[in-house]
């Protein structure tokens, strides 16, 4: 897209606004307690002023016959985050969490998985993952990261996410309230960071490319209309996948990725599962459209690694 660089610049600008505001407030402390108090009061006055203006805009739109106008506004992440800060978002937490899960559901499906919203109790969301992703640790971590990011953005009042498995066991993921003080929501938890990667969209069907993103070499490929990304590491020979190519299965079906060194085969459409040895699987990396910008959540450590 021709406007993508400007779009990326705009996203980066507003996502980091909260951090810049906090830095400026901290700098005022050098002038003493009185200077800091005046600066904080100034920020509160400005926030309250814009909040009052937003309240009037929302009220005016709600009175119009076009009921879809408000939905179109809250579909924009920046507008939605500001409405959340001021308590003006028209949708309750159940609707927002449900919509967030719907947005990432196609990505979950690419890993052979799905997620079900069981309940929201207080500030805790209870979810159940389903599908083949349950048997793949790397895929499970990838999906949890994608789901957590979506819920954090849509419902900052959620403090934890409880993952319930069919055998009734569960694990709780802490979820900080990232938008409460207008902080950027650009960074997921777990030592990972989202990076815009618009160049990946230029991959042609059947093409495989290597990209350095956030200090990590990522292997990306396109199968039909879908893009998939993995850490550049073959678990079979412990080498790089540089030079790997997609090969069509003899019996038809989705193409598979073959390591150019050890000839191991991996199902890139289904979370990088090993086709020659079930113990070997690629490390998938979340690759999602975030606010219309293709982005990768690059982890600080391999997603399948254990402490």
- What would CATH call the homologous superfamily of the largest domain? Rieske [2Fe-2S] iron-sulphur domain
Shape: elongated
**CATH topology of the largest domain, which one?**
Rieske Iron-sulfur Protein
| Rg over C-alpha atoms, rounded to the nearest angstrom | 22 Å
CATH architecture of the largest domain: 3-layer Sandwich
Domains counted in the coordinates: how many?
A: 3
List the helices and strands and how they pair.
Elements: H1 4-15, H2 17-28, H3 33-62, H4 68-74, H5 77-85, H6 93-110, E1 113-121, E2 124-131, H7 137-154, E3 160-164, E4 170-174, E5 193-196, E6 208-213, E7 216-223, E8 226-231, E9 245-247, E10 256-258, E11 265-267, E12 273-274, E13 287-290, E14 293-298
Parallel strand pairs: 2-3
Antiparallel strand pairs: 1-2, 3-4, 5-14, 6-7, 7-8, 9-10, 10-11, 11-12, 13-14
Helix pairs in contact: 2-3, 6-7
Notes on the protein architecture:
One of its GO terms (biological process) is iron-sulfur cluster assembly. This is Rieske domain-containing protein. By secondary structure, the chain is α+β, with helices and mostly antiparallel strands. Helices cover 35% and strands 23% of the residues. A four-stranded mixed β-sheet has the order 1-2-3-4, with helices on one face. Strands 9-10-11-12 form a four-stranded antiparallel β-sheet, with no helix packed on it. A three-stranded antiparallel β-sheet has the order 5-14-13. Helix 6 (93-110) runs antiparallel to helix 7. The chain starts with a helix and ends in a 9-residue tail after the last strand. 31% of the residues are buried. Mean pLDDT is 76; it is low at 1-5, 168-190 and 302-307.
